[in-house]
Amino acid sequence: MRLIDTFSIKMAQWLVGDYPDEMPSFVQTKYSVKFIITNIIPIVSLIIIALITGDYLEYAKAAIPFVILRQFSGGYHIKNADICVIVSISLIYLIVNYSYLLYDHHKVILLVSIMMCLIYSPSKIASKTIVKKENHFIFKVISVAIIIICILIFDIIISTSIFIQSLLLFHIPLREVKRDED
């Protein structure tokens, strides 16, 4: 079993067992604990990395636009919470440390980001929102507006962050390999 799933189950069992009158059902508590863990670990990890490297502003510039655009544009979600946490931390780390390599292509990556959002956003949000499908175009408009604001800011870390998130809108389904977990 996966580490975050195991911890979420044990924490939910303890909370529901010790506080049955205050806590919702086991399933809701487990989901809530898992949600908190998968959101807190990347934030705390990035703060620690920023403290070690002294790159506070750079990590904020990479993480905040990524998260904001993701809220409105959607995108591919890794089903395994443990891997999702590792990939999220790694992506922000790579954006901060290697975005300078894209500096000469700054405008191009933002134009590609706009095209990706116009074509693919919102992506994979149907089951994650209460907004009716006929109103999903609002998410597309907001996503494009976010990218236009980033064009005006003209910062390579922000632009790379937006670009990486816009690439996550396009999903090529891969064949999943089934395995037995003992």
Automatic annotation (TrEMBL):
GO: which molecular function terms?
A: peptidase activity
GO BP: any one term: proteolysis
- One of its Pfam families is AgrB
**Residues that span the membrane, as ranges:** 35-57, 78-96, 108-125, 137-164
Which SMART domains does the UniProt entry name for this protein? AgrB (SM00793)
Asked if the Swiss-Prot or TrEMBL record annotates the protein with the keyword Lipid biosynthesis, the reply is no
Q: Which UniProt keywords apply?
A: Cell membrane, Hydrolase, Membrane, Protease, Quorum sensing, Transmembrane, Transmembrane helix
Q: Which GO terms describe its cellular component?
A: membrane
Q: What's the protein called, per UniProt?
A: Accessory regulator AgrB
Organism expressing this protein natively: Paenibacillus donghaensis
